[in-house]
Design a protein that fits this description.
Elements: H1 2-12, E1 21-24, H2 28-44, E2 48-55, H3 57-64, E3 68-76, H4 79-87, E4 91-93, H5 96-99, E5 114-117, E6 121-123, E7 128-129, H6 145-148, E8 153-157, E9 161-162, E10 165-166, E11 168-169, E12 184-187, E13 190-193, H7 198-203, H8 214-225, E14 234-244, E15 250-257
Parallel strand pairs: 1-2, 1-5, 2-3, 3-4, 5-8, 6-11, 8-12
Antiparallel strand pairs: 6-7, 9-10, 12-13, 14-15
Amino acid sequence: MIAEYIAQFFEDAGIMQNGFSFQAGAGGINLAFAVYLRERMIKKNVKARFIRGGSTKYLVEMLEEGLTDYILDGQTFDLEGVRSMRENANHLNTSPFTSYNYHGKGNFASMIDAAVLGATEVDLNFNANVVTHSDGFLLHGIGGWQNALFAKTTILAIPSFRERIPVIVDKVTTLVGPGELIDVIVTERGIAINPRRKDLLKTVKNSSLPIRPIKEIYTEVNEICGGKPAKPKVNMKKPVAIIKWVDGTVIDSVFQVDA
């Protein structure tokens, strides 16, 4: 359902048009989104200029069907991606150290019309977390997630809760992405658009999509889950990781969780 909502949002918001570009990860929702978007592109006879990979067989199919001119690939996620890069001159190997380099002229992250990403938490100010869960334990590194936020429209595809733990929270456990760069939150219980993006709110005003304020979704999910979870207890004297922004600025820290 989330994947279908995103594909429809691309169309209803006017993102899906000839010459557009997009990026999608390799998670389950993102894989499904590419399938649904492909169907809409075929129906509307729309062709993308390029797709930013991580490539999968689904993106390879779009390239081979003429639905995009290029795949600009930072990593291949399956053997079809490897095969395509070997055989297709329009499946281009790109280095994230160039394409995601905030200081470099080869940075095309900001040229992408829309990026569809995931998150472990999102808060009421659209700040997002990808390195810890709500229990405070470190999950993994950031990778290129922050860099992808520079797309013209950044969409986070998330379930409203995981294992009875709300994903939309009052304040993220760890700040990894500032809310000013996150435009749309898509859940199975509705779509929240950042109030900063008045253009998107206006464009989808008459859409059949379930556009809702983020606080409304937050309140509903807390009721379903029996209230918001307690914040983790951490030892503020024992940092285990620091979170840097793309320019090297430290924006948060992860501390040892008291068991």
